[in-house]
Amino acid sequence: MAGNITFTMIKPGAVADGNIGAILAKIAEGGFRIKALRMTRLSKEQAETFYAIHSERPFFPSLVASMSSGPIVAAILEKENAVQAYRDYIGATNPANAHEGSIRKLFGKSIEANAVHGSDSDENAQIESDFFFSGFDRF
Ligand code: ATP
Ligand code: MG
C-alpha cells in the first residue's frame, strides 16, 4: 500500500535565489501538508550519505559540492500516495524536460540545480525523514 508521507529538500541554488517562499506556496497549492520544516546546511559528508546511491556516477562529486554549498530547507510532506504524487508534481529531474508549471520547470536551473529533491520510495521517505527530523519536530 502506498504511504502518505514524502520527504523534500529545497536545494541550495533555489534557497540562494530567494525562492523558499514561492516553492512552499507551490507545495501547499499542490495539496501537500507540511508535517515538519527546517532550514539547515548539509556538510560534505552528510551530502555524500544522502546521495550515497549515486556515489559511482560521474556527477557525484559535483552533486555533493552543490548540495553542501549553502543552506537548504528540509520538509516532510503528507498527501495520499505522497511519494509518487510529489514526484509527478515537481516534474522531471532535468528542468528542461519538466512539465509547464512544475516546481522544477519554474525554479530549476540545470539537471543538477533542479530546485528540489523528492523521495523515490516509501522506504526512502522514512529514512530521509529520520535523517533530518526527530519525533519532537513532527506534527
Ligand atoms: P532527487 O533524488 O534529487 O529527487 P531525482 O530522483 O529526480 O532527484 P536522481 O536520479 O535521484 O534524480 O538524481 C539525484 C540528483 O542528482 C538530481 O536531482 C540532480 O540534482 C543530480 N543529477 C542527476 N542526474 C544528473 C546528471 N546527469 N548530471 C548532473 N547532476 C545530476
Ligand atoms: Mg532521486
Structural description of this entry:
40% of the residues lie in helices and 17% in strands. The chain has helices spanning 12-16, 20-29, 44-50, 60-67, 82-90, 103-107, 122-132; strands at 5-10, 33-40, 72-78, 116-118. The protein is globular, with a radius of gyration of 14 Å. The longest helix has 11 residues, at 122-132. The chain has one domain (5-137): Alpha-Beta Plaits (2-Layer Sandwich). The mean pLDDT is 97. The chain has a four-stranded antiparallel β-sheet. Bound molecules: adenosine-5'-triphosphate and magnesium ion.
Keywords:
139 residues, alpha+beta, Alpha-Beta Plaits, four-stranded antiparallel β-sheet, 7 helices, 17% strand, globular, binds adenosine-5'-triphosphate, binds magnesium ion
Topology, element by element:
Blueprint: E1 5-10, H1 12-16, H2 20-29, E2 33-40, H3 44-50, H4 60-67, E3 72-78, H5 82-90, H6 103-107, E4 116-118, H7 122-132
Antiparallel strand pairs: 1-3, 1-4, 2-3
Helix pairs in contact: 3-4
The protein binds adenosine-5'-triphosphate (ATP) and magnesium ion (MG).
Adenosine-5'-triphosphate binds at residues 54, 59, 63, 93, 111-112, 114, 117-118, 120.
* CATH structural architecture: 2-Layer Sandwich
The set of bound ligands, ions and cofactors reads: adenosine-5'-triphosphate, magnesium ion
Unreliable sequence segments = none
Rg is 14 Å
Distance between the termini: 22 Å
What is the highest CATH level, the class? Alpha Beta
**Total strand segments:** 4
What is the number of helical segments per DSSP (H or I, 4+ residues)?
Answer: 7
Strand order of the largest sheet: 2-3-1-4
Q: Considering the protein shown, what is the CATH homologous superfamily?
A: Nucleoside diphosphate kinase-like domain
How does the helix and strand content classify structurally? alpha+beta
What fraction, in percent, of the residue positions are helical? 25-40%
SSE ordering: EHHEHHEHHEH
Describe the largest sheet.
4 strands, antiparallel
Count of individual domains? 1
Amount of beta strand: 15-25%
CATH topology (level 3) name = Alpha-Beta Plaits
Shape: globular
Average pLDDT confidence is 97
